Amino acid sequence: MPRLLIVEDEPALRHALTINLRARHYEVEAVGDGKSALRAAATRPPDLVIVDLGLPDMDGVDVIGGLRGWTNMPIIVLSARDRQSQKVDALDAGADDYVTKPFGMDELLARIRAALRRAELTDPSLEPFVRTDSFALDLAAKRAWKGESEVKLTPTEWHLVEALTRRPGVMVPSAQLLADVWGPRYEKETSYLRVYFAQLRRKLEADPSSPRHFITEPGMGYRFEP
Ligand code: CA
Fold first, then answer.
1. pLDDT tens per residue across all 226 residues of the chain
2. Among 129, 155, 149, 140, CA closest to 204
3. How many angstroms separate the alpha carbon of residue 52 from the centre of ligand 1?
4. Are 29 and 3 in contact, with CB atoms under 8 Å apart?
């Protein structure tokens, strides 16, 4: 069941979208401002975001920019602004598609399906093998090799490895990794990540003291470089 995040400040429209999309078997989280949207997306990453451009606390274009700092999840803009330049701004910021209000539910549903389909086609998580110059992973079979020798990873280590290798080169915020792997109550326990990444580097990196594949972005998060 794909998870959608709706960012819309008009309560009636937010409600109507939620009801309609749930009826189509999407899992829906709906928020009314930009800050809540960024927080929700980082804590419980959706499969797709629908964002209104006119929000009470910040511009929808900045919400898109904020999301694009760390994720390539599909983003559909929903807006009453229909000037060409405004569409271009939203698309330049990283939106995948643009629906002008007023719109028909069928049109929006078709755009959602298309965006999810494209995302899946380009989703590297569908490729279960990860190879670097120092290690190889078979994510489907849960087997790992450093050079020629097989190494054992714990379920938590696999979970972290999967969360990072799914989006090569993209920084995943620490809070999101913690929420993903340990649960939402652990978002601040960054020491867990330090311990586990030290372990992972010992097991997989050619030189664990100067890692080339599991990179720390100090104070922000972690990134996998293939
Ligand atoms: Ca609005």
1. 899 999 999 999 999 999 999 999 999 999 999 999 999 998 888 999 999 999 999 999 999 999 988 888 899 999 887 778 888 889 888 898 999 999 999 999 999 998 888 777 555 555 678 889 999 998 878 899 998 899 999 888 998 998 898 888 889 999 989 988 888 888 889 999 999 999 999 999 999 999 999 999 999 999 999 9
2. 149
3. 6
4. yes
- How far, in Å, from the CA of 72 to the mean position of ligand 1? 24
Domains of the chain, with CATH numbers?
3-119 (3.40.50.2300), 129-224 (1.10.10.10)
Cα of 10 from ligand 1 centre, angstroms: 6
CA pair distance 216, 172, nearest whole angstrom: 10
How many Å lie between the centroid of ligand 1 and the Cα of residue 9? 5
Q: Is residue 102 packed enough to be buried (19+ CB in 10 Å), middle (13-18) or exposed (0-12)?
A: exposed
